[in-house]
Task: inverse folding
């Protein structure tokens, strides 16, 4: 069975490397720390799932979501948001769903297994769309 | 050429970040340590995992310890003493080099030839410089360097920490205030930072009758944060 391609966007280098190692058990993972690089990677190859931190440098992931929603080939890429303000973001779940966010995870309680499960479910949703 | 100065140095320009922003800055390393611990639990981590847990916990402990110190600064004036800057900077560089190496960075010293002595609180100045260097490492990229330098300027001792990370634009360096005069964005906050570390540095500087300032360098040449200290005249008889 083919492994889903996951783009991980995390601006903390060590956290990104650790999360990527956990995801690599089940998925093919590409990691980046900036929104600009994420867009360049997506232009080369559209991932099956995007796992993104919300606060990224001097911007937030909404800037990326606006970009992705503008194009036919990226508008349906499911997104798993992972953030230290994940619990607060859940209040905006309905609004974020318009941008393809299918799951919001709170980093302080996330486990590698729960993240892999979230990405598996997101990948399955992506196939259905 | 030193690049643009951001205006006169003034400790009150490094405003205390909001409680929410500061809490986020304290939460982030705990999230990282938890993630690294879970990695070890799943037996996926290597030697770098436990090493990074150590560095992250040390960073957190420094931040919390320094935050605690800010509540007790009124005692620090009694412990002011002549401090030889070159040896203090060498200690700081030596202490943080392992952390810098973990990020594939290096710390370099740029010191004058003659002895440079300031009047300072040794522990506060050490903690202030460690904080500025840690901040520089956090904003650098792999392969970058942190330069710790010192010089005599206008009769005062200037100790500077320079990184190669993102600049803070001029507009951001202006203090933003609401109509009620409350600061909503700390000066010189940079990506991924609430400015808590710089606020602590400004408090330590004030306690030593010193000031801190920043320089935003041109193009991609990073930023410098410096502290201006009173010069000690103790050795001047031998000059």
Result:
């Amino acid at each position: 069975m083919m492994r889903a391609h996951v783009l991980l966007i995390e601006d903390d280098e060590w956290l990104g490397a650790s999360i990527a190692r956990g995801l690599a058990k089940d998925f093919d993972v590409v990691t980046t720390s900036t929104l600009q690089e994420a867009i360049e990677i997506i232009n080369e190859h559209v991932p099956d799932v995007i796992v993104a931190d919300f606060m990224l440098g001097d911007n937030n992931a909404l800037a990326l979501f606006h970009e992705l929603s503008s194009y036919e080939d990226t508008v349906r890429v499911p997104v798993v948001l992972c953030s230290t303000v994940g619990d607060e973001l859940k209040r905006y779940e309905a609004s974020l769903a318009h941008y393809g966010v299918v799951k919001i995870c709170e980093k302080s309680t996330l486990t590698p297994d729960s993240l892999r499960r979230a990405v598996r479910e997101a990948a399955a949703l992506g196939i259905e769309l | 050429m030193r690049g643009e100065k951001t205006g006169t140095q003034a400790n009150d320009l490094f405003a205390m970040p909001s409680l929410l922003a500061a809490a986020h800055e304290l939460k982030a390393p705990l999230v990282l340590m938890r993630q690294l611990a879970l990695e070890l639990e799943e037996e996926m981590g290597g030697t770098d995992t436990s090493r990074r847990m150590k560095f992250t916990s040390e960073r957190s402990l420094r931040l919390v310890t320094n935050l605690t110190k800010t509540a007790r600064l009124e005692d620090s004036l009694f412990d002011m003493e002549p401090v030889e800057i070159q040896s203090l900077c060498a200690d700081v560089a030596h202490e943080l080099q392992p952390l810098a190496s973990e990020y594939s960075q290096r710390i370099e010293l740029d010191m004058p030839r003659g002895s440079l002595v300031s009047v300072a609180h040794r522990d506060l100045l050490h903690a202030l410089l460690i904080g500025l260097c840690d901040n520089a490492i956090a904003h650098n990229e792999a392969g970058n360097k942190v330069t710790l330098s010192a010089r005599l300027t206008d009769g005062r001792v200037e100790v500077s920490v320079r990184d190669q990370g993102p600049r803070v634009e001029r507009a951001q360096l202006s203090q933003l205030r609401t109509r009620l005069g409350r600061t909503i964005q700390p000066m010189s906050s940079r990506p991924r930072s609430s400015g808590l570390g710089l606020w602590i540095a400004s408090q330590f500087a004030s306690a030593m009758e010193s000031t801190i300032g920043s320089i935003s360098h041109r193009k991609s040449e990073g930023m410098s944060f410096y502290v201006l200290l009173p010069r000690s005249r103790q050795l001047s008889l031998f000059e």
In short: The mean pLDDT of chain A is 90. Chain A has six helices and seven strands.
